[in-house]
Design brief:
Chain lengths: 374, 374
DNA sequence: CCTGTTTGTGGTAGCGCTACCATGATGAGA
DNA sequence: TCTCATCATGGTAGCGCTACCACAAACAGG
């Protein structure tokens, strides 16, 4: 322990009683109150959207806020509000690109609302339960669960029973017993399939996602329904099982593209598998999109970093996770002491993003030559 | 409306008329002080690692902290500390996978230290300067700059002159005039090249990164030096220019793999281009790694989501950005009012990650048949 | 008219921590 | 011995905001 005499950098200002603590003159709630000619309390009420404020008072306050360019101090807010909300984000090996989007959304929102976020990886559902029990003991209030954890009712029940707030992000369907933020997986897959059909394809392959995730089934159903609605028969040989990983996508694509009568388009249940499909197609000297159309799902960063860039369904993962955090904060705030909170549910819009991996079937391809022939 | 008189038979002198605000009994600095039999101030000093605390007192405090499982309240801390530090993170189109790691590190650390983080995209250096001027006006104190922005001395000077704190993350070399967090790019490229040589390769191709970034040149130099040290001559036809994008990697790989006397190994300056090289190799029916070894740089998530997974240099991007945030916080804290701060510099360790995209040259390949022949 | 109830607003006391003194104890120098 | 610097520690006053209560004004019902 080096004794340091370098305290000399310190400056003993002995003059005035006490130096002002505030260095930068960012406006405070008091400044706004003065400007609006009311009390800080009233300003606080306006900021927090409380009921009992007269309309004209509210307008004056809003005007003052705008004029002073006031932004509430987060630290002060959460300090005054008392308890610091703590949320755990658990995950059990979703695809890496999905995860990074996922984390980003959560971190951003948690940072914005000054929420403490614990990120925890679990090997499987059993381990997740152990971890959750520990976190519950530690007093963590909120839990964010991506698939496949959010598809396990036991996990959800465990949290609910202990009085925690669970929000599923991107589950296949919402169970109603807990919070959820999701997109209409079925409809999205339906739309994409319809889009591919609209390009003129008839032999459309499909790569299923991880069977543990309910969403995988929903996407498959969307595909089936769209095919049926278009009067196209489904060749079960054109449906391959994947696991959402790149590697599994290669295997599935190999099967589909190697078939005697190969599809002219392949719709993979996520971008990782779609990217793998593109790679396999290239390996077989098939051009994407001219020989095979390949479409993905999720619109992770991978979709636009490979070439050709993938036509895919944009799932707003970041917003979804951010909303999940916000939802927990909201529910937590309104939750009665010791009581149970009413779960909310939120369905966000997806979007079909068209890039360069799809096209109409080429004449040659529609004759379905064996791969590799000139 | 409970009148005070009936609420309490306790204390007529206004003593305890208010309900406790704290709901959960998380230990506070006062609890620790009581346990350690000293004042809260002393505890605060220990927490903040200040000098003037006797060793035995410090130990008592640390013991109390451990015993109570005390964690300082972030909100209270930054509120009491006065100014909320604000940091801007600017970027000008680095690769997407790099960016996501980058953001993650910054967000995490900012969240931990309760720092307000502004994330801003800029089209080019000119726009960056405009943006920075605006942010400086807005009183943003810290600036985090990834390449290529951190390689532009004008940008750095602009911030320094205005009294801001700039930290470059991953610049080719540190200029000394500003903070920097980096790895030894030259040495890393040298090591990787040597690794490839060690596998038995002699014709080793190289794909250069975006020429705007100083690091690109450093990596090239590392390659050149390693080749020279091993007594291998460099065929300039085996060096191709890329831009760090997947697309540019495809073009470069096409050139290298299409050459009459193609390389048996290709070292790409980042993972995106390496992934593209793998794709191009597959397209030419070359197996990776048996026909061509392909190595990348950065170890972004892409490296391990394709197949085969890439042997690459792990650059700890997340830690680097986190360190950059911490560095700004540190420098800001010690900076004299209105004065200029002393820039710090930090070099982190890189790591060669060996995965499945490298192997010794095959007998066939070492004869360098034209591609495609049996 | 007196009692309640509702509504809008203000006052005050913290939330948990740290900046800034003040102070008593030690040691160094006169 | 008596200064005066230095150290180790304590006390106090906020940081900016919100929970909680108080209270006056406006209305309701008796």
């Amino acid at each position: 322990m080096t004794k340091q005499a370098e305290t000399l950098a310190h400056n003993p200002t002995q003059g005035r009683k006490r130096a002002a603590r505030r260095s930068n003159a960012a406006p405070t709630i008091t400044d706004v109150a003065r400007e609006a000619q009311c009390s800080p309390m009233t300003v606080s009420r306006v900021i927090n959207g409380e009921e009992n404020v007269r309309e004209d008072t509210k307008q004056k306050v809003l005007g003052a806020i705008a004029k002073l360019n006031y932004v509430p101090n987060r630290a002060a807010r959460s300090l005054a509000a008392g308890s610091q909300l703590r949320i755990a984000l658990l995950f059990d090996n979703p695809s890496a690109s999905y995860l990074s989007e996922f984390l980003m959304g959560a971190l951003e929102e948690a940072s914005r609302q000054d929420i403490y976020l614990v990120v925890q990886a679990c090997e499987n559902v059993a381990e997740a339960q152990k971890v959750i029990r520990k976190l519950l003991d530690g007093g963590i209030e909120g839990y964010i669960l991506p698939p496949p954890l959010c598809d396990d009712q036991n996990v959800l029940d465990l949290i609910r029973t202990a009085g925690g707030i669970a929000v599923a992000v991107g589950p296949g369907r919402a169970s109603g017993s807990h919070g959820a933020v999701l997109i209409d997986e079925f409809q999205a897959a339906y739309d994409m399939t319809k889009h591919i059909i609209g390009l003129g394809h008839e032999r459309i392959g499909f790569i299923i996602g991880n069977p543990e995730q309910v969403a995988s089934g929903q996407r498959l159903e969307g595909y089936r329904k769209a095919m049926g609605d278009a009067g196209l028969s489904i060749d079960e040989g054109l449906i391959a099982q994947g696991q959402f990983t790149y590697r599994s996508g290669m295997v599935a694509a190999e099967k589909l593209l190697g078939a005697a009568h190969r599809p002219t388009a392949i719709f993979a249940s996520n971008d990782d598998m779609a990217a793998a499909t593109v790679a396999m197609a290239h390996r077989r000297h098939l051009d994407v999109p001219n020989d095979v159309t390949v479409c993905g799902f999720d619109d992770t960063e991978l979709a636009s970093s490979i070439w050709p860039e993938l036509t895919t369904i944009r799932q707003p993962i970041r917003e979804m996770t951010a909303e999940a955090v916000a939802m927990i904060a909201r529910v937590h705030k309104h939750k009665p002491r010791g009581g149970r909170a009413k779960p909310e549910q939120l369905t966000l819009a997806y979007q079909l993003i068209r890039r360069n991996s799809d096209a109409g079937p080429s004449l040659a391809a529609s004759f379905s030559k064996p791969p590799g022939s000139p």
